[in-house]
Amino acid sequence: MIPDAAFTLDGAKNHLRIVHTEEDSVIVAMLDAAVALCERYTGRAWTERAWSTPLDACDLEGCGCTDPAVYHALLSPAVPVIYAGDVALDASAYYTGTMFGHTIAVITEASAFGADPRGTVGRIDWQAAPPNEQVPPDVIAAAMLYLGDLYENREAQIVGTIVARNALADALLRPYVLDMYM
User: Fold this and answer.
1) Is 90 helix (H, G, I), strand (E, B) or coil?
2) Distance CA 52, CA 126 (A)
3) Phi-psi region for residue 64, left (φ > 0), alpha (ψ -120 to 50) or beta?
4) What pLDDT, in 10s, does the model give residues 96-108?
5) Which helix (H) or strand (E) holds 41?
């Protein structure tokens, strides 16, 4: 269930013009997928999310990061807790900040993992939440457009037809994209 007040089942059903309750669980799942699509597109958290990253990987696709002690969060803003094995490190062993708008965690204490932190067993547990201000109306509109697409086109695609991204939703989200190369 999506915890943010900007994305509710009632709001989704109003957008879809649905009054029955038979598909509520399907609509909630589609709404969550639509909001997640907005989050992946922008790199920003619009709802509360939690995920783990093994220390041998970086969440940010194509980040090109060569420093073995720098980890980018999938969504921003996010708060990391870094583990060596199953033991959480003291927060003084790493730094949390931003790079090009993305939340990063930098392991600063070499003794926590040895010379290369990616060579040991460990993970980062991330917690992301939307900014304190309200979710912008255009982000909500984009999520509803994606939701409408998911709801109306939930059957298998027919081979030979043209399938395109929702250009209006993309245009609504573009101002909120965290760009690695600003």
Assistant:
1) coil
2) 6
3) left
4) 888 878 888 887 7
5) helix 24-42
Q: Which two tokens stand for residue 146?
A: 């994606």
Going by C-alpha positions, the residue among 35, 53, 31 that lies closest to residue 45 is 35
C-alpha triplet 80, 85, 86: angle, nearest 5°: 75
pLDDT higher than 50, residue 1: no
d(CA 127, CA 144): 24
The reported pLDDT for the residue numbered 131 is: 73
Q: Is the pTM of this model over 0.85?
A: no
Question: Which amino acid appears at position 69 of this protein?
Answer: A
In a 13 Å sphere around the CA of 106, the CA atoms on its Cβ side amount to 10
**Span 9-45+135-176 CATH architecture:** Orthogonal Bundle (1.10)
Tokens of 86: 């199953």
User: How many Cα atoms occupy the beta-carbon half-sphere of 48 within 13 Å?
Assistant: 6
Domain ranges of the chain: 9-45+135-176, 49-128
